[in-house]
Every structure is written in C-alpha cells, then in structure tokens.
UniProtKB/TrEMBL annotation:
Pfam families: Peripla_BP_4. This is LacI family transcriptional regulator. InterPro entries: Peripla_BP_I (IPR028082), SBP_2_dom (IPR025997). Keywords: Signal. SUPFAM superfamilies: Periplasmic binding protein-like I. Transmembrane segments: none annotated. The keyword Iron does not apply. Belongs to the bacterial solute-binding protein 2 family.
C-alpha cells in the first residue's frame, strides 16, 4: 500500500516469519517515540516481520493503513487507535479477511469485542485518579479555592477522556478545587504552550496545571516562564507519562508530580502476537505496570530511565 512505510525487520525471505502490520498514531510526543522504538526493537528481537506506518494522528490514515495490511494479507494487525470511535467498519473488514487484530495503548468504543483479540495498555482512568489523589493530599487542610487549568490530550482519544474522568472524579470530592479552564493541547509541546499562553492571559490567578502528558506540560512551562511566573512554584504542575524530558523537569522542580504511563509495550505485544498466531487464547485485557514520581524520586531514578 502507498502509505505503508514498509520499514521494520524484513530481513530476507523468512517466509515462515509472522508478518505483523502495525498502524501507529504518529510521532507527536516523547512517549510515542519510545513506544515506536519498543515495538520495532521487540519485533526484530522476536523475528517477527514488521510492516509499520505512522498516521500523523489522523484516523483516516490509520484506516487506510489497516486496509493496506488486509490487502497484503498480513498474519496479524495491531494498532493504537488515535480516537475511540469510528473503527467498526474497518475492523469488520479485517475480521471478514480472517486477520486477527490486537489493540495496543489506546482503546476503541466498539461494543463488538469479537473485532479484536486483546487490548494491551494502561488504565487511563487510574492514571487520572493518581493525579487527583496527589493534588488532594497536597492541599489537605487548606480551605481557599484552588484554581486548576487542564491541558487535555487529543480530543476523542481514550487517554484524554479517561485521564479527565479519573482526575475529575477525585477532585469532585472537595468544592475548593475548581477547573477554571480545560482545553485540548493534542498531546504536543507546541499546542500545550499555545493553549497555556491563552489560559494565562484569561486567568490571572492559576494555582495548578494538570496536563494529560509531559510534552504539553513542557510546552506550558515555556509559556509560564514567558509570563514571568515560576513553574512548580507559582503554578504547580502535574503531568502523565514520565518520559526523560518530563522527569528532568520534575527533578529540576518545574513539575511537581508525574504519573507514569509506560510506552514499553513491545515485548508483551510480540508475545501476544505469537500466541494469537498460534491460535492460543489470550486475556481480553492486559494492563501495563506503572507507578508515580515525586521530585525526590525523579532525581534518584533519572540516570536509569530507558526513555
Ligand atoms: C498513552 C498514549 C498517549 C501519551 C501521550 O498511552 O496514548 O499518547 O500519554 C501520547 O504522550 O501522545
């Protein structure tokens, strides 16, 4: 297919190799880059032939890529759905072509769970909850209003929907927490900076920023410093991911707390690919292990971080 970059570990004939077609969201963040590397390295390691495509965060490009994998008669299709809705038609085409599908990273809202074999990824509601829990603890005993602005991930994506929900459910317990502005920064630094500049212009007294990923938080830090305020001090910042640049900002005191979202799904994905290809049953849901980091913890682990 025209849009398939065809990169990956296709070394020679290897006719008995499993051929995996993977449609990636894009290259929007440090998390995504690490996720792509994990998938490519693990496919090589497992001797799986990987056909890989980058959709530049556009659903129609992912649908085109999946259709091209169906035409190429790959053994298995895996993808990270950029948004939750609009997948049933193309997933039915894969099912009719008898090509099993594995979801990674983000979920779809299809009610027909026969359309994919398993979904491996984080629990984003839990991630939002962890962010909210930290904030509640941070402001325990305080009574004055806490003005919060929120940089949401890609509109319609599972991480954006669920991180917003998890966080909102926790802070709803105390009326002093007020989300005074909430808008998408599309998981990118550039958009995060742009939206934070607008937030700062419209709201003179922001106490907290909750950003759905490190990259938007890092963009927001540039905007906060540009407005003559100290990130991590004048405005407390909570982000999600824990990629290297985010962890550095945490260690430097510009971010206050990071909820980890592991991008290293490659090894488990290849294991699931092999099992599904062999016709073995696999769990419908595989949840990734992940933790949280304070500024002190970031300083300690920074040297050993893989991404
Ligand atoms: C989460 C993943 C999100 C990351 C962002 O699993 O889908 O997309 O949190 C990335 O950094 O862009």
């Amino acid at each position: 297919g025209g849009d398939d970059s065809g990169s990956g570990s296709d070394s020679g004939s290897g006719s008995d190799k499993i051929v995996l077609g993977f449609s990636q969201v894009g290259a929007e963040s440090g998390w995504r880059t690490a996720n792509t590397k994990s998938i490519q390295d693990s496919a090589k390691e497992a001797g799986i032939e990987l056909k890989f495509s980058d959709a530049q965060q556009k659903q129609e490009n992912q649908i085109k890529a999946i259709r091209s994998y169906i035409q190429q008669k790959v053994d298995i299709i895996a993808f990270s759905p950029v948004v939750e809705s609009g997948w049933d038609t193309v997933l039915k085409e894969a099912k009719d072509a008898k090509i099993p599908v594995i979801l990674t990273d983000r979920a779809v809202d299809s009610t027909d769970t026969s359309l994919y074999k398993t979904f491996i990824g984080s629990d984003f509601v839990e991630e939002g909850k962890k962010a909210g829990d930290w904030l509640v603890k941070e402001y325990t005993g305080k009574t004055e209003t806490v003005n919060i602005v929120e940089l949401q991930g890609t509109t319609g994506s599972a991480p954006a929907n669920d991180r917003k929900k998890g966080f909102g459910d926790v802070i709803a317990a105390d009326p002093k927490f007020k989300v005074i502005a909430s808008q998408t920064g599309d998981f990118t630094r550039a958009k995060g900076k742009e939206v934070m500049e607008a937030f700062l212009k419209a709201n003179p007294d922001i106490d907290v920023l909750y950003a759905h990923n490190d990259d938007m938080g890092l963009g927001a830090i540039e905007a906060i410093e540009g407005a003559g305020k100290k990130p991590g001090v004048d405005i407390k910042i909570i982000t999600v991911d824990a990629v290297k640049d985010g962890m550095q900002a945490l260690a430097d005191g510009k971010i206050n707390y990071i909820v980890e979202c592991s991008p290293l799904l490659g090894p488990q994905l290849m294991d699931l690919v092999e099992k599904v290809h062999a016709g073995e049953t696999v769990p419908a849901r595989v949840v990734t292990e992940e933790t949280t980091f304070t500024q002190e913890q970031a300083k300690a682990v920074l040297p050993s971080r893989q991404y």
